[in-house]
Amino acid sequence: MPGTESVDRANWVSALEQLTARHAGDAVTIELLDDTYGDLDEAERVPLSSVVYDPRDDVVVVAVGAASGDSPGMLRHLVGHPTGVDIYETSAGAALRVTTEGSTMIVSFHRG
């Protein structure tokens, strides 16, 4: 799936499940670009556990880290009431952009 894909809301659940299947365990960096708080680094090069969209609560959840091993624990970053999901993939890695009013979360996937 090389290139950029703006995912229709109806497909968010399956697209994020597929993204998780392709990248579970890959190191990821999570950045938050927020109109109020500025740019924040949430996590840097920690293993991806999952990316899911919960339509009932209207939230995208990115879970990183591990309950054991080298990671200090599990971190979950939530984006409530997202307005857009974009996925960019190349042979070198991938990126996920989740937008909501006033902020953008970017998850960069690092292979190898």
TrEMBL record:
Name the UniProt record assigns to this protein: PH domain-containing protein
Species per Swiss-Prot/TrEMBL record: Luedemannella flava
Lineage start: Bacteria, Bacillati, Actinomycetota, Actinomycetes, Micromonosporales
